[in-house]
Amino acid sequence: MMNCLEFRRRVGAEPAISGDEIDAHRGDCPACARHQDELRAMDAMIGRAFVVDTTRIRKPRAVVAPATGRRWLAMAASIVIGVSVGIALWVSSPRASLAREVIGHVASETHAMISTTPIAPEELAGVLDPEGTKLRPGIGDVSFAARCVFAGNVVPHLVVRMPRGPVTVLLLRHRNVDGPVRLEEQGYVGVVLPAPRGSIAIVGRDQKDLDGIAQQVFEAVDWGG
User: Fold this and answer.
1) In the prediction, which pLDDT does 134 show?
2) What pLDDT was estimated at residue 65?
3) What would the mean pLDDT of 34-61 be, rounded to a whole number?
4) Is the pLDDT of residue 89 over 50?
5) pLDDT in the model for residue 86
6) Angle, in degrees to the nearest 10, between helices 20-28 and 4-13
7) Structurally, how many domains does the chain consist of?
8) Which domain holds residue 171?
9) What is the 3-state secondary structure (H, E, C) of the chain?
10) Which residue has the higher pLDDT, 48 or 103?
11) Residues 39 and 11 sit within 8 Å (Cβ to Cβ)
């Protein structure tokens, strides 16, 4: 004879199962019969939930297209915005990088600002001649002149004594700029200007007339042929 445990194990795996042993146990055990009936009812309900009435399916209406179109427009807009931001960053990044490089170099060589003694003309010539440049008279005393490594390139680094304090001048023959690049960081102010050969950076502290000083320095440089 089938016991309750075996009956419930078998109907649990297959609620619709029947046969002599199943039917005999159902007749002898109302509780197991009720258990199987509940399983059969649940199984039927689940089956109905998966039945699809094809007669009630409607074709997608045309109104869906605008929503899809709007999604594509939104995606396209986001792509355009992303590209625009990328271009803006690409364009502005070289200028920001140049500003950081100039200020970083000046800040790392503060010793150059200390001396107040004018250097000898031959020493200045040794710094400028390899670049094919000279300084015209009247710019003021040059208290420091050296050829320094700047972003992997050797450049003339000068310190010129001005009435309001010393200014650093870097002749960046290897760097071109399409317009003035303003510098203001770590207490320094300055500008990088386009030059006949590359660019020129003029940096100082507490300079009230930076534009005037920059123009004076720029005009004092003889860029050569």
Assistant:
1) 92
2) 46
3) 68
4) no
5) 45
6) 120
7) 2
8) 112-222
9) CCCHHHHHHHHHHCCCCCCHHHHHHHHHCHHHHHHHHHHHHHHHHHHHHCCCCHHHCCCCCCCHHHHHHHHHHHHHHHHHHHHHHHHHHHHHHHHHHHHHHHHHHHHHCHHHHCCCCCCCHHHHHHHHHHHCCEECCCCCCEEEEEEEEECCEEEEEEEEEECCEEEEEEEECCCCCCCCEEEEECCEEEEEEECCCCEEEEEEECCCCHHHHHHHHHHHEECCC
10) 103
11) yes
Assigned domain for 137 exists: yes
In this structure, what CATH number is given to the domain that contains residue 143? Answer: 3.40.1000
Structure tokens at 47: 């089956």
> Does residue 104 belong to any structural domain of this protein?
no
Give domain status of residue 97, yes or no. no
More confident residue, 119 or 79: 119
- Are both 139 and 48 inside the same structural domain? no
Q: What is the pLDDT of residues 125-166, one digit of tens each?
A: 999 999 899 999 878 899 999 999 998 889 999 999 988 889
Reference 159, options 116, 210, 206; nearest CA is 116
Q: Which one has a higher pLDDT value, 72 or 136?
A: 136
My answer on whether 49 and 138 are in the same domain is: no
Based on the fold, state whether residues 121 and 25 are members of the same structural domain: no
